[in-house]
Amino acid sequence: xxxxxxxxxxxFRNHPIGFILAVLLVPVAIxxxxxxxxxxxxxxxxxxxxxxxxxxxxxxxxxxxxxxNISSIRTVKISQSLGNRIFKVGTLAIYTAGDNPELKVExxxxxxxxxxxxxxxxxxxx
Length: 126
Known about the structure:
Blueprint: E1 3-7, H1 16-24, H2 30-43, E2 45-50, E3 53-58, E4 64-69, E5 75-79, H3 82-87, E6 89-95, E7 103-109, H4 111-125
Antiparallel strand pairs: 1-2, 2-3, 3-4, 5-6, 6-7
Helix pairs in contact: 1-2
């Protein structure tokens, strides 16, 4: 399978102030715990585009896997604050049917690249 987009949520770029505060708390030892939990949460989430499917995997010990066919996607919504735009990260919400997103992932790097790949995939399948 051809992976065109394969990313984990970013730690620093998504929440730079929180990251700096956690680093400052390292001498108190609570910062190490915060950074470890945060790192594991980021690394346990993976969003990929494989061919004509979007795959979202979450979890370390227990895995939750969601697969969506690109042709069934109605809307890809990107939400970015000013800081997110500076660091090129954002929240991706993918809608297939209805008013609630099928997938929602925060802190994803290069969200505009993801949206363009989905649009290109829909155009080539049409």
